[in-house]
Amino acid sequence: MSEPAGLRVNGRSAELEGMPDDERLLDTLRWRLGLKGTKEGCRTGDCGACTVLVNGASTLSCLTLTREVEGADVTTIDDVSTDPELARVRDSFATAGALQCGYCTPGFVLALAGLLKERGRAAPVEELLDGLQGNLCRCTGYAAIARAVALAREGPP
Amino acid sequence: MSRFELLTPRSVDDAIAALRAAHGTDVAVLAGGTDLLLDIDDGRAAPSRLLSLRRLPWRTLDWVDGAPTVGSTLPLRSLEDDPELPRRLPGLWQAVHAVGSVALRHRATLGGNLGRAAPASDLVPMLLALDATVDLVGPDGDRRVAVDEFVRASRRTGLGPGELIRSVRIPEARPSAYLWQRVRPANDISQIAVAVAFSPSRRGWSVAVGGMPPRPVLLRDVADGLGAGRPDDGALRAASERASREVEIAADQRASEEYRRRLVGTLLGRAVRSVAVGPEVAAA
Prior knowledge:
Distance between the termini of chain A: 47 Å
Radius of gyration of chain A: 15 Å
Number of strands of chain B: 14
Number of helices of chain A: 5
Order of helices and strands of chain A: EEHEEEHHHH
Shape of chain B: globular
Strand order of the largest sheet of chain A: 2-1-5-3-4
Distance between the termini of chain B: 64 Å
Helix content of chain A: 25-40%
Oligomer: heterodimer
């Protein structure tokens, strides 16, 4: 018997009663809660498409058991319209044209938002780019994404 | 239906008792889960129970006289972010930084990495070169084992029945370096990796090679050949050639034996040169 798990997702509490112990955070978000912004890519921790924030820290939701993060605050791309920092990072991707098909973008935005939370905007751009090495984009090449990173550092508060 | 039941004991005693009660192979210990869950997805492991360590008080990092004791469930990202680490153990910082990606390191742990004993672990070679020891807790009390003794082969360790990894202890600060070769810098597995460290207390080098099966190994003769300080060019070349020649290396799907042999020498040379251990001295 497992105890009921709860989460706060994008500021709202999510009831997870009856959830199986082996459920991944990715599946909880997409299928249990209907938040389809978080993408499933490789499901093996290689591509970063499923990145979300768990208590502010970027996390691969495909390799995280939901029960292991019960009680945590989870932030996904679906919150972009209410979270000003996420919106700012999203806007820097749009301004830089740093996406084509857009499938990897939620993961990149959350990974960069997490890095900016950890390191602050004064962090060297090289360190931020280094911190995004776990995210793959197969469309654009990375030059436009690097420009988005620079914009996210420099943009207005 | 869940494929497994998740156990989340609230104390170390409860965890040991649950592990004993669950009998060996049927239960898997869960730390960060970034490697174990892949095995479960692929069907390489099918435990009926996972014993989660997340409620145990092991997310710790303690420095005593410049040497750290790392709690087994401390996320690697927290270890990497400690301001003391790059200063006192630069090679360990490099090795931790080489694991997965930032998002992966927010969950992956040092204890999990040791417990999984992956042949291509980025952490085990560095721990070997640092003479690290593992502190275990179990039904018969605590014991301390050298990493070299603890890690045996892929998924095989010196953990006894009912035992858990509590922490990893590194005996002293050491100038050190960790260099690797792989296809992709992040979220990839090293084809070959070299860890070097210089011990100020015994005035000697340690060299370990990883990234290939069956497990990372210490090259003691090669390390001795580097002498008691910064080696001159001749000694370094001789050590690199010896390492290339003598290391036990197998080919697998990630790299050929020849490629690995050549890289061992190259990376060893670069790693030793990058370690600051004072003026050049002639090799012993």
